[in-house]
Amino acid sequence: MDHQPRKTSAEQPVTSSATDRDTPEAYFEAGLRLLQAGQLAQAEQCGRQALTLDECHSDSMHLMGMLCIAAQRYELAIEWFAMAIRQNPGVADYFVNLGMALQRKERFDEAIRSYDRALLLNPDQLGVWLRMAELLLQQERFDEAIKCFDRAVTLDGERADIWYRMGEILKQQKRTDEAILSFDQALKVKPDYWEAANASGLLYVEMKRYEEALARFSKSAEIDPTQAGAFNYLSCCQWPMRRFEDALANARKAYDLAPDNPEITKNVGLLLQRLDRQEEALPWFDKALALRADFPSALNDRATTLFALRRIEEAFADLDRAVAFDPACPDHRWNRSLFQLLVGNFAEGWQGREWGRKSTLVSFTDRKFTQPHWFGDEPIAGKTILLHSDEGLGDSIQYSRYAAMVAKLGARVILEVDSPLQPLLQGLEGVSLCLRKNEALPEFDLHCPLGGLPLAFKTRLETIPAAPSYLPPLPEARLCAWQDRLGAHDRLRVGLVWSGNPAHFNDRNRSTTLEKMSAIFDCRASFYSLQKDPRAEDRVTLSERSDVIDLTEHLTDFVETAALICHLDLVVTVDTSVAHLAAAQGCPTWILLPQTPDYRWLLGRDDSPWYPSVRLFRQGEDRDYESVLARVREELGTLVAAFRAERDGID
Predict the structure, then answer these.
(1) Which pLDDT tens digit goes with each residue over 248-280?
(2) Domain count for the chain
(3) Residue at a domain's end among 415, 441, 463
(4) In the sheet that 525-529 helps form, which strands lie side by side, from edge to edge?
(5) Which of 27, 40, 284, 459 is deepest in the core (most CB within 10 A)?
(6) What value does the mean pLDDT of the chain take?
């Protein structure tokens, strides 16, 4: 087929039965009908006949351009459309189709200008606004594209697909609130649009607005109860809400609908793992890996369960495979490093732990300093180094012991910590200046996170700096105030902490309740609550008991808590920052640990190489604190008896 734009002549007669009228308009209309019917050759004949009769007939030139587009001859189409526009620049369709041809030739800026001209001539062309929007998106001109979508929904607000598409773009641009409005409008226009409900729900999850996310996913599951995705999203949403049993039920529903989906299969295992039902979790990870052998995150998760079951060699084998499959992923290396530290392999553990600074699993604070990170190899005598906290409060207390060692290398040490710790740690040995986070920093030459100091000093089990106490002296006035407040020391004084941060990923296993801890209260000791922000059920229990003295209204900061601890004989606590605070003061501290504890407490020992005054009380295979507290009660009875014997001897 020859679509070349050329003048027609009497020597090129074209006859057609397509029309009974021998006029350019008649041949054009016939050609248009033939084009729509897919009869391109006959349509071309009509177009040429029209141009034979009137070589300036712009509609026929436009027809020839459309025929060229149909034949994928876009350069020729551009020529025909340009000829049509020169004859009649007031027809919007000419510019629309010119834009299409230019777009096919990747002449995007010219295509956009052509669509602009079309919309100036006829601003009510919904399809052109949408085409323009998509083209602008290709050019990453996002704000202009969104304006096109805005105009499109103004023209037709009942098009759910347009609202949804606009929501997708707004989501990409991190305009989250507007994206949610778009997805919700799509759902309003089309109430069975479960994809829009899911999209809105996922954005609410990103914002940690889980109740609203839950409502969207519930709506999605209601619209189409056969889609596994909605139940999987429900499960993933209920996880951070600590509704683990509900999450597990929805994960199982998702699995029943999509048993060949390895991600969903793995999620069932993860929830069982989080519920500490490790024996049940293991087969689900096995299933997920049977569905997809190259599934590093499933290997990583199975390793966690294997470790909890003390199948340690198998756990490390899975972690090694996960790293081999995805060597650039920091999550698997981070997890492996924690297990290496837990079994006492500090050489590899500290090195691997640095991957946590890149991992999505860890909330390390990345300060992005321009000064170099000190890893212990560079001499620092005569230099100023910033040591900064990048983890939790307990971690900062534990690793602040290294400040004196850094100073002994000849450096001036600036310590930057979270605001609650600054009054406690100012005056720490080796520290020239102690600042709160977000205070203006003086000039410094190097920096090192506090949690990176064990790596810098190549710490091994036998070289842990374990002074009996290392915190600065407390203000005498505060110590005296607590002595007056507590009165006569006629009973063993025991401080109590039974729960930690509820947002901690392992809180379910780390924390207990005051009701359970009351199992140790039947001995002749004075018990003091050090528990800040007790949970609702514990507040009720605390108000009902007369055998626990609650002085927490006076514990306004860490210095105040430390001053109280100085007057206690013992602190019994779960794994919290108070455990580190008490132990770093040298106070006898009994720490209750879950069956798989945090890496710093190691395995299979009841002492801590980090803190000489600590005793560890570990859960057994029952993974319950009941038996742990029974042992604590027995040991506490012995301690009370010794205290009374000493007191009576003095008397």
Answers:
(1) 999 999 999 999 999 999 999 999 999 999 999
(2) 2
(3) 463
(4) 548-550, 525-529, 492-497, 570-574, 589-593, 614-618
(5) 27
(6) 92
